Structures are given as structure tokens and as C-alpha cells.
């Protein structure tokens, strides 16, 4: 057990350090983690023998839950609304067409049966949200005509269709007696119902329930993501569809302290991607890839140059999309995590196949990320689709939580200089804007002629200070024998470079003044510069 924990700790540390290094490389960083897994794997220098498909499938499924949830949570529906119809058509009919075209190619060129061919096409039919998001953000790739939003919604929402096709074909090929229409109905109905219901319940509870435990909201949303997948799955529904819809709902409605959720799930998603790609590199046996290499290359070439482009053209042409947008969208069909997870599912169900599907799909995904991912910025530039004045971060919800603006409150007292003063005459520092006045039980949006009254609570916006490298905060508790007990702040000798910035008293935060007297039990927050 200790050896396993040591290995896990070392691998995670290496992945995080390599992730930082890989940001400056021209290739997608996810390739680094696959390479690291192969380095530790059976044919690598470390030589770890790992071939447990069941454990791999469980770990990858858990990681994919959070990738799907955060994909929905981070999707800005307002930005995506102009291309929402295109995205939904691509993520549904596009997957069906791609699976059909690819399956037909495999049947006639590789000579496999129709069911086996369509199964392979279904497994690799969806585009990968993790890979697409990773490249768009790491390369700061802002695209014209809302194409970035189009790709984000499509790649985040097309896995459920691919998953349903895979399940149906697994059942057919293993001889399981099922009603395909009933199975599809359960997958869609419980997936949609579960996502909407759990998402709405989560929003209501987050808005109205007082989470006294620190980071309670974060842990609660973590649990919601797991529930949104597990509950519909138990009922025969599509857990991936449910968790994605749940993420969209929660990400596009007001939730208190959303920026902390963004930071948490951004980290979880990043680690999940590292774990999945490292694990896949560890699971694969490079010495066994020879028999599937030529078929993988043929499928990859067809999928990239014909299957995906034809599907995209048939769907986007009726929307009168430009050929440039169609070209970039077609090239952006990266394969990734979901395809490999679905291939492991096929292996675990002992589906009779000519090729080892995991090895075949692994090669396709590796080539897709390496070739399409690396060349996507170049293709976008050649097709003149790069928006030089755009910001791809604006297409994600978490951008709204990182605008560099903080809100502060100012309580106006009777003798304050602001009391009985018109807002336009008030002496306020440059860069400080009064955005709202809370008076009694009313909220007032002020203008220059608004009078500030005693007991008003002013809500002000100010730029956030981000460079905190030389600023540290420390807490001290005033105990019975503390030398500052019962003394006003102006009498206290504070070391140079320090400032008392906050007093926590009985759960209330007090901005200190020189006349404030420190009491027993006060928590003093001191800034040290």
C-alpha cells in the first residue's frame, strides 16, 4: 500500500510540474501525460505491469464525470446562444453521421462486419471536450463567428450520443435481449430529467441554505456532480448527459461564491485530465500496437479528411455557415478521453472483435491529439478564422468570476463626511464606483444626484489587487494575558511594515479604527508587507 501511495504522489507531482512546463510547448500538453504513463508502463524504463481494465474504467469514469460537469458549468450560454442550434445538431446528428460514415468505411476497407464496424465508428464518433478546451485556452485561440463557443458546446455535449450508440451495439453484439427503443428512451428521458431536476435542486439549496462549514458549498457541488451522474445511471438513464446538463444549469445561474467553485473544479478537472491520460499511457502495451497501427492510421485519415468534414458540411451548410467556419470546425474534431473510456467498456463486456479495440482507439486518439491538436492554430490562421481582438476566455463562465473587480461595503455613520452629501459631490478615491445603496430594505441604483444618508450601506466596486507576493495575512487571538487586551488600537505598538486590517468579533468582521478597543476573544488579522 505504501509503495502505491508513494508512486501516486510522485506521479501527481511530476504531472503538475510537467503541466507548467508544457504550457510553452507547441504540442498539446495532454500528450506529455500519455508519454509519462508509457514511460512508467510495461515497455518503459520503469516497467510497471498494469492491465486492469476494470479499475481503469472506474477511475476514468469518475474523472470524466467532473470533466463533463465542469464542461457544462463553464459553458457561457449567453455567448453560445447564436450558435446553439448548430452545436446541438453537431452533437446529435453529427455523431450519428460520423459513426455511420466511419463504420461504412471500416466495413468496406477493413472487411469487418457491419455491427463491428459501426461499433468502432460509434466509439470514436464524439469529439473530446477536455482536448478542445485545453487547446483553445492554452493557445488563447479566439475564433471568429462564435466558432469557439460552437466547438465548446459541441464537444461538451456529444459524448452522451456516442455512449448510447456504444451501449446499444454492445448489447446487440453480446446477444443481450433488450428493447432498443426502450433503452434509448430510458437513456434520454432519465438523463434529461435527472440533469434538470438535480441542477435546479442544487441551485435552490445553494441560494437559500446557510452553509456554516467553510467551503461547504464547494463540497456540496462536488456531491451534486456525483449524484447527477449516479442517480440517472441507476435508473437506466444517461449519466453523462445528466451531469453535463446539471453543470450547464448551475454554471449559468447565480450561485453565491461561484468563483471559489470555479477555482476548485478547474483544479479537479486539470488533475482528472492528467490522471486519465497518464493511466491510459500506463495501461497500453506499446509492443502490442503493431497489429492495429495500419488500421488505426487508415481510420484516422478517413475520419479527419472525409468522415468528420462531410458530416460537418451536411449539418452546417443549411445554417449558411461560411466554408472557413466549416473547415475549422471539421479540423477541430479531436478524439480523446471519452472514446478511450468507451473502448474500455467494450473490452470489459467481452465483445468479440477482430482487433483489440482499446489499442486501436488509443492509436487513433494519440494521432488525433498530436496532429489535429498541434495544427489547429495553424489551420485557423490559414483559414483566416482567428479573431485578433477576441478573448476566448469570454466564452467560458469562469471569465465572469475573474474580471479583476471586487465589491466592498461602506457603512455611513451620522458624523461621516459622506452623510447628507450628494454622490456627485462626495469625495471618493479614483477607481472607486458606488454601484448600489442599501437603505432600510430598499436597493437603490444611484446617480450623481442621489443623496447619501446616515445608516446607508454603500456597495462600491474597485479593481482587485492581484500581486500578493509581498503581502501576507496573519491571525492573532486576544487571550486573557495578551498585552493588547482592553487597549485602543492607537496605543498599540505595531512592528514596522505591519497593519491591522480586520477584527473578527463574535462572528462579525470589523474594519478597525484607532479608537477601537480590543476585547478578549477578538481575532486580529494583520497584514505584513
UniProtKB/TrEMBL annotation:
Q: Which InterPro entries does UniProt cross-reference here?
A: Cation/H_exchanger_TM, Na+/solute_symporter_sf, RCK_C, RCK_C_sf
Query: Where located?
Result: Cell membrane
Q: Where is the RCK C-terminal domain?
A: 394-459, 460-529
Coiled-coil region list = none
Matching Gene3D superfamilies: 1.20.1530.20, Regulator of K+ conductance, C-terminal domain
Sorted UniProt keywords = Antiport, Cell membrane, Ion transport, Membrane, Transmembrane, Transmembrane helix, Transport
Q: How does it sit in the membrane?
A: Multi-pass membrane protein
GO terms under cellular component: plasma membrane
Q: Give yes or no: UniProt keyword Transcription.
A: no
| GO molecular function, a single term | monoatomic cation transmembrane transporter activity
In terms of PANTHER family, this protein maps to: K(+)_H(+) ANTIPORTER NHAP2 (PTHR32507:SF7), NA(+)/H(+) ANTIPORTER 1 (PTHR32507)
What NCBIfam families does UniProt report for this protein, alphabetically? PRK05326.1-2, PRK05326.1-3
Name of the protein this chain belongs to? Potassium/proton antiporter
Lineage from the top down? Bacteria, Bacillati, Bacillota, Clostridia, Lachnospirales
Amino acid at each position: 500500500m505504501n509503495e502505491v501511495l508513494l508512486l501516486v504522489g510522485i506521479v501527481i507531482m511530476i504531472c503538475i510540474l510537467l503541466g507548467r512546463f508544457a504550457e510553452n510547448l507547441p504540442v498539446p500538453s495532454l500528450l506529455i501525460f500519455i508519454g509519462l504513463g508509457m514511460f512508467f508502463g510495461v515497455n518503459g524504463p520503469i516497467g510497471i505491469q498494469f492491465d486492469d481494465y476494470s479499475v481503469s474504467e472506474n477511475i476514468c469514469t469518475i474523472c470524466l464525470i467532473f470533466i463533463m460537469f465542469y464542461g457544462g458549468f463553464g459553458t457561457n450560454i449567453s455567448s453560445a446562444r447564436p450558435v446553439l442550434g448548430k452545436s446541438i445538431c453537431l452533437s446529435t446528428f453529427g455523431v450519428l453521421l460520423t459513426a455511420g460514415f466511419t463504420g461504412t468505411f471500416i466495413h468496406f476497407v477493413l472487411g469487418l462486419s457491419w455491427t463491428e464496424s459501426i461499433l468502432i465508428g460509434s466509439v470514436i464518433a464524439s469529439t473530446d471536450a477536455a482536448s478542445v478546451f485545453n487547446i483553445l485556452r492554452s493557445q488563447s485561440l479566439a475564433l471568429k463567428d462564435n466558432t469557439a463557443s460552437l466547438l465548446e458546446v459541441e464537444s461538451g455535449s456529444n459524448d452522451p450520443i456516442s455512449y448510447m450508440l456504444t451501449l446499444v451495439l454492445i448489447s446487440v453484439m453480446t446477444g443481450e435481449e433488450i428493447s432498443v427503443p426502450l433503452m434509448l428512451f430510458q437513456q434520454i428521458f432519465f438523463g434529461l430529467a435527472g440533469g434538470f431536476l438535480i441542477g435546479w435542486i442544487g441551485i435552490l439549496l445553494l441560494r437559500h441554505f446557510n452553509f456554516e462549514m467553510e467551503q461547504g458549498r464547494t463540497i456540496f457541488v462536488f456531491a451534486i456532480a456525483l449524484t447527477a451522474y449516479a442517480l440517472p445511471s441507476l435508473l437506466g438513464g444517461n449519466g453523462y448527459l445528466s451531469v453535463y446538463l446539471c453543470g450547464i444549469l448551475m454554471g449559468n445561474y447565480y450561485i453565491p461564491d461561484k468563483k471559489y467553485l470555479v477555482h476548485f473544479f478547474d483544479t479537479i478537472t486539470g488533475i482528472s485530465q492528467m490522471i486519465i491520460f497518464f493511466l491510459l499511457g500506463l495501461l497500453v502495451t506499446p509492443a502490442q500496437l503493431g497489429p492495429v497501427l495500419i488500421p488505426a492510421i487508415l481510420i484516422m485519415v478517413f475520419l479527419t479528411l472525409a468522415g468528420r468534414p462531410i458530416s460537418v458540411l451536411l449539418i452546417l451548410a443549411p445554417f449558411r455557415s461560411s466554408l472557413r467556419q466549416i473547415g475549422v470546425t471539421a479540423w477541430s474534431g479531436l478524439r480523446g478521453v471519452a472514446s478511450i473510456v468507451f473502448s474500455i467498456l467494450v473490452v470489459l463486456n467481452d465483445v468479440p472483435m477482430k482487433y483489440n479495440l482499446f489499442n486501436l482507439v488509443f492509436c487513433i486518439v494519440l494521432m488525433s491529439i498530436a496532429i489535429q491538436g498541434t495544427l489547429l492554430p495553424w489551420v485557423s490562421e490559414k483559414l483566416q478564422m482567428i479573431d485578433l481582438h477576441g478573448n476566448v476566455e469570454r466564452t467560458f463562465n469562469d471569465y465572469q468570476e475573474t474580471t479583476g473587480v471586487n465589491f466592498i461595503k461602506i457603512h455611513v455613520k451620522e458624523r461621516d463626511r459622506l452623510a447628507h452629501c450628494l454622490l456627485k459631490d462626495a469625495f471618493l478615491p479614483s477607481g472607486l464606483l458606488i454601484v448600489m445603496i442599501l437603505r432600510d430594505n430598499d436597493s437603490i441604483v444611484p446617480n450623481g444626484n442621489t443623496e447619501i444618508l446616515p445608516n446607508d450601506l454603500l456597495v462600491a466596486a474597485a479593481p482587485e489587487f492581484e500581486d500578493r507576493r509581498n503581502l501576507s495575512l496573519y491571525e492573532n487571538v486576544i487571550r486573557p494575558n495578551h498585552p493588547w487586551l482592553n487597549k485602543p488600537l492607537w496605543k498599540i505598538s505595531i512592528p514596522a511594515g505591519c497593519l491591522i486590517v480586520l477584527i473578527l468579533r463574535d462572528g462579525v468582521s470589523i474594519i478597525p479604527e484607532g479608537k477601537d478597543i480590543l476585547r478578549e476573544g477578538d481575532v486580529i488579522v494583520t497584514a505584513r508587507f
